[in-house]
Design a protein that fits this description.
Blueprint lengths: L2 E5 L4 H12 L3 E6 L15 E4 L5 H4 L8 E4 L6 H6 L1 H22 L3 E7 L22 H20 L2 E7 L1 E3 L13 H9 L4 E4 L5 E6 H13 L5 E7 L4 E3 H8 L3 E4 L13 H7 L7 H11 L5
Parallel strand pairs: 1-2, 1-4, 2-3, 4-5, 5-6, 6-10, 7-9, 8-12
Antiparallel strand pairs: 9-11
Length: about 300
C-alpha cells in the first residue's frame, strides 16, 4: 500500500486513476482547483480531496507529507486554448509544473509520474512516433508539455527525485467530459449524437488519431509509479499503437457527419509502443470497438 497524491485528480483521467488506485488498496489524495468544472463528488469516497491551485507551492508542501508518489496531471490540455490564451496556458502548464516539482523537492517525495503529451511530436513525416524522434511541437501546449519532460529529467539529475514522463495519446473512456479537451474526437462525436446533431469533422477527416482507453492508460501510470526499471526521467509513449482516421471513428460511432474548416493540429498520430512494452511490460487491452460500445451504452445510445 502506497500513498499517492494526484494533481488534477478530479478530472477525467484522474477520476479513473483514483478508482483503480483505491481498488488496489492505495491511499489517495487529490489536489484540484476545479477550474475545469469537474465534480469531486464522483471520486471514490476513500479519496481525500483538497481544493487547491498547484501554483500555490507553499500550500501544497504540507499535503505531500508521507506521500510516496505524485502523479502530475494538472494542465490546460488543449492546443486551441494554448493558442488563444497563451499566458494563462503557460502559467498552468509551466509554472504549475515547476511549483509541483519544488513542493515535491521540499517535502522529500520519492517519485513523480508526469503526464506528458504526444503533442510534443508535432508533425512528423514518419509513423509510428518513437521516443527517439526529435520533438518539434507546433503549438504552445506541445511546447509546455515538452518543457515538463525536461524539467523531470533535470530535477532527477540535480535533486535525485525519481521521475518518469508518459506521453499520453488521445484518451477516451468513462467520465469523459464531452466538452473538455480530451473530447476532441470521440467525446465530441458522442455528445453530438446524443443531441441528435451531425458529427462535425474538421478538414477532410483523413487525419489519424491514436486512441487509448483510459483504463489502459491508468494501468500504465500505476506501473510507471511502481517499477524499479524507471525513475531517471525516461519518456515513454502511452497509446494504442494504431492510427485511425477521424472519418473511421465517426463511422464507428455511427450517424450523419458535417465537415468544417481544418484547424492547427498534428495531421497524424500513432504511438510506437516498443519502449513501454519492453520496460514496463505494458500493452493496451481495451479495443476501440469495445471502448466506444461501452460509452454508447453509458449514454443510452444503444441498449
Amino acid at each position: 500500500m502506497s500513498t499517492y497524491l494526484i494533481t488534477g485528480g478530479a478530472g477525467f483521467i484522474g477520476t479513473n486513476l483514483c478508482e483503480q488506485l483505491v481498488h488496489d488498496n492505495h491511499h489517495v489524495i487529490v489536489v484540484d482547483d476545479l477550474s475545469a468544472g469537474t465534480d469531486p463528488k464522483r471520486l471514490p469516497q476513500e479519496v481525500v480531496f483538497h481544493k487547491l491551485d498547484v501554483c500555490d507551492t507553499e500550500a501544497l508542501v504540507p499535503l505531500l507529507a508521507g506521500v510516496d508518489v505524485v502523479v502530475h496531471l494538472v494542465a490546460r490540455p488543449s492546443i486551441p486554448y494554448s493558442i488563444d490564451h497563451p499566458f494563462h496556458a503557460q502559467h498552468v502548464n509551466i509554472d504549475g509544473t515547476l511549483s509541483v516539482m519544488e513542493a515535491v523537492r521540499t517535502a522529500g517525495v520519492k517519485r513523480v509520474v508526469y503526464a506528458a503529451s504526444a503533442s510534443a511530436y508535432g508533425n512528423q513525416d514518419t509513423m509510428p512516433l518513437t521516443e527517439t524522434m526529435p520533438a518539434q511541437p507546433n503549438s504552445p501546449y506541445g511546447l509546455h508539455k515538452y518543457y515538463g519532460e525536461h524539467l523531470m529529467k533535470i530535477w532527477h539529475l540535480i535533486h535525485g527525485i525519481e521521475t518518469v514522463s508518459l506521453r499520453f495519446f488521445n484518451t477516451y473512456g468513462p467520465h469523459l467530459d464531452p466538452t473538455g479537451a480530451y473530447a476532441l474526437v470521440i467525446g465530441r462525436f458522442l455528445k453530438q449524437r446524443s443531441e441528435g446533431l451531425p458529427m462535425t469533422i474538421t478538414g477532410d477527416g483523413e487525419q489519424t488519431r491514436d486512441l487509448v482507453h483510459v483504463r489502459d492508460l491508468a494501468r500504465a501510470v500505476i506501473l510507471a509509479s511502481q517499477s524499479s526499471a524507471v525513475g531517471k526521467g525516461e519518456v515513454m509513449n502511452v497509446g494504442a499503437g494504431v492510427g485511425i482516421s477521424v472519418n473511421a471513428i465517426a463511422e464507428l460511432v455511427g450517424g450523419p457527419v458535417e465537415y468544417i474548416p481544418p484547424r492547427i493540429e498534428p495531421r497524424h498520430t500513432c504511438a510506437d509502443l516498443h519502449c513501454i512494452e519492453e520496460v514496463l511490460q505494458w500493452k493496451p487491452e481495451v479495443s476501440l470497438h469495445e471502448g466506444v460500445e461501452e460509452l454508447k451504452r453509458l449514454l443510452g445510445l444503444i441498449a
